[in-house]
From TrEMBL:
Organism: Streptomyces sp. gb1(2016)
Any Pfam family hit: SpoIIE
Keywords from the named record: ATP-binding, Hydrolase, Kinase, Magnesium, Manganese, Metal-binding, Nucleotide-binding, Phosphoprotein, Protein phosphatase, Transferase
UniProt cross-references to CDD domains, sorted A to Z: PAS
Start and end residues of each stretch annotated as Disordered: 141-167
Annotated ranges, domain PAS: 173-211
Catalytic reaction annotation: O-phospho-L-seryl-[protein] + H2O = L-seryl-[protein] + phosphate
Descriptive protein name: protein-serine/threonine phosphatase
Enzyme class: hydrolase
Length: 697
């Protein structure tokens, strides 16, 4: 077919050793491997399905629609650590989007590690033009393109002489050698074996030819042999190791890869000593595990998914990671994650289910017979059902709860503590191989650990956030001729709670006190101290600003806290149109004058010491008096709004003032959101933000 010809030509024109085509699935955001040229299909099996949202070079090439080049394994580990965990091989990779009349997917090209770490302009042009040719073929294909269940092997046809011309002489030569000689095609099937190799492997030549070695020779069905074979395929460099043929015969095996396949030499090693290149690698699979379950491709896939799970923090993170990466990896279409709560299973996340089905499943008791989830969680034993008939035999009422046709129920158990249950489901019957079952059982344990951490984190975060919200003012007072709006944003993920606060205190019909402050730290202690500071300010509000701060400082000194507090207190006199300010080391407020040419100024306030500083029991907080123009906007904020790593604080405040000048006529709520968006766009937030805007009418 034309696509095979173009893919074959791409490998030869680019000088790559192998290539693959990923196509976007029609009904889900997943990239599916559909064709492989130049290496065995089973070598790439663990990466047959990749989520578009995954953190890796393939997904990035599709999402960003640009060529991604990874020249060395070190670059992969630095740029894409999750992907590197599942690809521990030395090679160079290029990922080019296939963009024609639509975005079809991506072309992947593989070079051995001796390729220079960077692409030349000519090579880049070859890759881009090859991707364009493939996209044109896809554009011209009649009807909708169907993605096959398994990727197709495209034969590589390198130029060369007819092997039949020298085949008889070569066979005669190899049969005379005392060493065993085998040849494998690019798919891993044995295409030649001499008598010595057949004898050492314990099989006849007829039993070996045309078969995969791990199928024809049971003791070769071991993850070690697969890993060495995979390393030779990817690196295109010789690999040597020592293996044990049961019960006690040691063999030296050397693999020599090439563009058309792999040659292998086998020789006896009576002493069982390792070859100079590698130590003895024989590994005994775990008791009860099939050799297939321990395949290194699946192991690398598990490592990749474990790395992604280790980076989750919240329950939502875990749910999204399972939905975006684990579902595509195993070809599942549905997912339900439940948490054990007072003897019931509460659904905390789902994908691919009708909301009505989720409602029926939510809150079921652990001893229900409607679903195997409760039994799996109580016993700690996972359950797999390949089709509705199998499910109906065990749980007659279960299959009617959804339209799914195959299920994997994975109990989430941590140290004998029942965390919940993860259910993966399929729209069609699905056979769970021994490999699938083994990897899913291991994955269930990893999901359980991540979910246990996430549930604890969310509980602590909700508690801390609730405490902080309770300490902040529920509503701000209504004051004639003064419009007000406020916002509080907690710090970015991973920080529990902070001590930023704001307040507006009504003093009379024509006077008010505006307060903003920042307690050092991001924890419960900071939030609790914030509440005490607010109480102290309220107790003395109405006196001169400097006296309010001095008395609040006395309170903090009596509390003997080791936390410091910055604070800005402003007495607003609307009748006299005057501001009286005092600062305890807080960033300067901004005042926008709405005259014919609007201008925003950072008010110069002589600062006093931070509240709670040792040896400052008699601290002095100078008073600053300034006019308050009509319709002016006063902005009070904490440093989280303006502090940007690598940027001078003065420049950040100037940028905020410019934004306030530009948008100051907007309603205050809209203006608040605009200032917060500016902060979010210009730096990654690691601190809380409190913002208080006031406009004199």
């Amino acid at each position: 077919m034309p696509l095979d010809q173009v893919l074959n030509g791409t490998v030869q024109s680019t000088g790559a050793l192998a290539a693959g085509i990923y196509l976007l699935a029609v009904d889900e955001p997943v990239l599916c491997l559909t064709a492989v040229c130049g290496m065995p299909v089973n070598t790439a099996a663990p990466w047959r399905r990749v989520a578009v949202s995954a953190a890796g070079p393939l997904s990035e090439a599709v999402r960003e629609n640009h060529l991604v080049w990874v020249g060395r394994q070190e670059d992969m580990a630095r740029l894409y650590p999750n992907a590197a965990a599942g690809l521990p091989y030395q090679f160079a990779l290029a990922f080019a989007p296939l963009h024609g009349v639509r975005l079809w997917g991506a072309l992947v090209l593989v070079w051995p590690k001796d390729h220079p770490p960077s692409l030349t302009r000519r090579e880049r042009g070859h890759i881009v033009s090859s991707a364009s040719r493939i996209a044109r073929v896809l554009d011209q294909a009649p009807g909708p393109r169907k993605i096959p269940e398994q990727p197709r092997a495209v034969p590589l046809s390198p130029p060369g002489s007819d092997p039949a011309q020298t085949g008889l002489a070569a066979d005669d030569l190899l049969q005379r050698l005392p060493a065993g000689a085998l040849s494998f095609d690019l798919q891993g099937r044995i295409t030649y074996v001499n008598d010595a190799a057949a004898r050492m492997l314990g099989r006849t030549a007829e039993g070996l030819l045309g078969n995969f070695p791990w199928q024809a020779v049971p003791w070769l069905d071991d993850p070690v042999h697969e890993d060495h074979y995979r390393t030779a395929v990817f690196s295109r460099e010789p690999v040597a190791y020592t293996a044990l043929r049961p019960p006690d015969e040691w063999l030296d095996i050397r693999l020599y890869p090439g563009d058309s396949g792999i040659s292998a030499l086998i020789s006896p090693n009576p002493g069982g000593q390792p070859t100079a290149e590698t130590p003895p690698p024989h590994i005994t699979p775990p008791l009860g595990a099939s050799p297939e379950a321990a395949g290194t491709g699946r192991i690398h896939q598990l490592i990749h998914l474990a790395t992604a799970l280790s980076q989750t923090v919240t329950v939502a993170d875990v749910i999204n990671m399972v939905a975006d990466q684990i579902l595509p990896a195993f070809g599942a279409q549905g997912m339900v994650i439940s948490a054990a709560d007072a003897g019931r299973l509460r659904i905390i996340g789902h994908r691919g289910y009708d909301p009505r089905s989720v409602t029926r499943l939510d809150g079921l008791p652990l001893d229900t017979d409607l679903t195997p989830a409760g039994q799996a969680l109580r016993s700690g034993v996972p359950a797999f059902f390949a089709d509705p008939a199998e499910m109906t035999r065990a749980y007659p009422r279960a299959s009617v709860l959804s339209e799914k046709h195959a299920w994997a129920f994975l109990p989430l158990v941590v140290s004998d503590r029942r965390v919940g249950c993860c259910v993966l489901s399929y729209d069609h019957p699905h056979i769970f191989s021994a490999s699938d079952r083994a990897i899913l059982v291991s994955l269930g344990g990893l999901i359980a650990q991540a979910m246990d951490r996430a549930l604890l984190y969310d509980a602590k975060h909700d508690l801390a956030h609730g405490l902080q919200q309770a300490l902040l003012p529920m509503t701000l007072p209504t004051i004639r001729n003064l419009a007000v709006a406020a916002r509080y944003l907690p710090a970015a993920r991973g920080v529990d709670v902070g001590g930023d606060f704001y307040d507006l205190i009504r003093l009379s019909d024509t006077a008010a006190a505006a307060v903003i402050g920042d307690v050092q730290g991001h924890n419960i202690n900071a939030a609790a101290l914030m509440g005490q500071v607010r109480t102290a300010v309220h107790a003395t509000a109405g006196t001169l600003p400097g006296e309010v701060l001095a008395r609040t400082n006395h309170v903090l000194m009596d509390l003997e806290t080791d936390l410091f507090v910055s604070c800005l207190y402003i007495h607003i006199d609307l009748a006299e149109r005057r501001l009286q300010l005092a600062s305890a080391g807080h960033p300067p407020p901004l005042l926008r004058d709405p005259s014919a040419t609007p201008q925003t100024t950072a008010l110069e306030v002589e600062p006093g010491p931070l509240l709670g500083v040792t040896l400052c029991t008699e601290a002095d907080y100078p008073l600053t008096t300034l006019p308050l123009p009509e319709r002016s906007v006063l902005a009070l904020y904490t440093d989280g709004l303006v502090e940007t790593p690598g940027t001078d604080l003065t420049d950040s405040i100037a940028a905020l003032a410019h934004l306030l000048t530009k948008n100051g006529n907007r309603p205050l709520d809209d203006l608040c959101d605009s200032l917060l968006r500016h902060a979010g766009l210009h730096h990654a937030r690691t601190d809380d933000i409190a913002l208080l805007l006031l406009r004199s009418r």
